[in-house]
């Protein structure tokens, strides 16, 4: 494919992502405006890491995911705990370590946003014939797998 075909394609993908993200801003708008970009990155990483570490992610793992020092991560976590966005608990496997997770209010906002995405995706998929739906899902998965080596 040439640039004239590829550029409109990725622009459309970004447009769809932006539309979906903007749909959920009303859920989190008051929280978003009081946080820095790096704090938002940390919150997103905690949310994603909590899928693999439901009891809470360690400071070391969180710092590595953000490519920052544990000391810098600890300061950011403390600030977000004070804002009632993150929780810092004792790690159940190692009482000397901490387990970082989303605060209940933040977890609820993520759940509401994900429910909105689920409903919207189901609504779209219902408009497609079965063969197109299967092809779309398969293609998105192939693209996701292709992109994994570029993930940081």
From TrEMBL:
GO terms for molecular function: DNA binding; DNA-binding transcription factor activity. Residues 6-145 form the HTH marR-type domain. Pfam families: MarR. It comes from the Bacteria. Keywords: DNA-binding. This is MarR family transcriptional regulator. SMART domains: HTH_MARR. GO terms for biological process: response to stress. InterPro entries: HTH_MarR-typ (IPR000835), MarR/SlyA-like (IPR039422), WH-like_DNA-bd_sf (IPR036388), WH_DNA-bd_sf (IPR036390).
């Amino acid at each position: 494919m040439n640039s004239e075909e590829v550029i409109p394609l990725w622009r459309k993908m970004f447009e769809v992502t932006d539309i979906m993200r903007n749909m959920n801003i009303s859920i989190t708008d008051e929280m978003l405006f009081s946080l820095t970009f790096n704090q938002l990155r940390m919150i997103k990483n905690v949310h994603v890491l909590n899928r693999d570490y439901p009891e809470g992610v360690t400071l070391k793992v969180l710092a590595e995911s953000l490519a920052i020092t544990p000391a810098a991560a600890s300061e950011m976590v403390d600030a977000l705990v004070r804002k009632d966005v993150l929780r810092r608990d004792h790690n159940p496997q190692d009482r000397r370590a901490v387990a970082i997770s989303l605060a209940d209010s933040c977890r609820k906002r993520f759940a509401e946003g994900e429910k909105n995405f689920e409903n919207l995706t189901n609504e779209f998929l219902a408009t497609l014939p079965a063969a197109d739906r299967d092809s779309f899902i398969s293609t998105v998965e192939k693209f996701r797998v292709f992109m994994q080596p570029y993930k940081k």
